[in-house]
Structures are given as structure tokens and as C-alpha cells.
Amino acid sequence: MNQAQVDFQQLRIKHILFKSKVRSVLYGGRKDEAFFSGSGPLSLWFSAIGRSKYVGLPEMQELIKVQQELDSASDQLFRLYGNGKIEEALAGLQKIEERSARFLELLSKLEERVSVPGDSLV
After folding, report:
1. Which of 6, 115, 1, 2 has the alpha carbon at shortest distance from 59?
2. Is residue 120 in some structural domain?
3. Tens digit of pLDDT for each residue in 81-115?
4. 46: Cβ–Cβ under 8 A, 6 or more apart, which residues?
5. What is the 3-state secondary structure (H, E, C) of the chain?
6. Tell me: the pLDDT tens digits for 27-85?
7. What GO terms are given for molecular function (predicted)?
8. pLDDT band (50, 70, 90) for residue 117
9. Which domain holds residue 65?
10. Looking at the domain assignment, is residue 40 inside a domain?
């Protein structure tokens, strides 16, 4: 496994954990403030790896945008849940799933792009 594959596998795992933690909160679990903060694992991955190694690739730019949408959507669902609108919050998980599918699609395209010999990372 080369370094790019390791980078993207790490991101995929962090993304799956993100979805799991969102779902957990909406089903009555405690919100992991550190995980969802600007110093959480997803934010750190994007700042330390994504924006440094792959920033010149259009798929990375789109991944950053989709992650921002996921962050915003999850914050909105947490607010709904906190305001007692549990059914609305749970229904909003569909938006998370849709954005997640887009995220994973982009990640696969990015992996494919960097696996092509001679294709530039910037």
C-alpha cells in the first residue's frame, strides 16, 4: 500500500466514524465535542494531509466542500435534537447519507486519479 492509499484509507475511516458519531448523538448518545471541533480528526486530516498534499486536485477541493456541508448539516441536526425536535433530526440523517455517498464517490475518484502513473498531485 503506498502513502496515498494510506492517506485515503485514513480519511475513509474518519468519515465512517463521523457518520457513526452523528447517528449516535441523534439516538441519544453524548456528542463528542472534541471529535466535531476544528481540532478533531477530520479537520486535522484535511489541514495536515488534504490541503498540503492534494490541494491542487479538483476532487480534493470538492471533498473539502462536501465535508463542510456535512459539518453544517450535522450541526443543524444536533440543534434540532437539542431543541426536542427528535423526529426532524432523525429524518435529517437522509441528508447526511446523501452527502456521504457524494463524499465517498469523490474519494474514490481522487484515489483513482493519484494511482494513475504520471498524473500530477498538484
Report:
1. 115
2. no
3. 999 999 999 999 999 999 999 999 999 999 999 98
4. 64, 67
5. CCHHHHHHHHHHHHHHHHHHHHHHHHCCCCCCCCCCCCCCHHHHHHHHHHHHHCCCCHHHHHHHHHHHHHHHHHHHHHHHHHCCCHHHHHHCHHHHHHHHHHHHHHHHHHHHHHHCCCCCCC
6. 999 999 999 999 999 999 999 999 999 999 999 999 999 999 999 999 999 999 999 99
7. kinase activity
8. low
9. 3-114
10. yes
Give residue 56's identity as a one-letter amino acid code.
Answer: G
Reading the block at residue 49, the C-alpha cell is 494531509
* Domains of the chain: total: 1
**Residue 59 is assigned to a structural domain of this protein:** yes
Q: Is residue 56 part of a domain?
A: yes
Measured in degrees and rounded to the nearest 5, phi and psi for residue 113 equal: -60, -45
Q: Tell me if the pTM is above 0.85.
A: yes
Determine how many CB atoms are found less than 10 A away from the CB of residue 31: 16
* C-alpha pair distances (Å), 23 with each of 18, 46, 71, 72: 9, 22, 13, 15
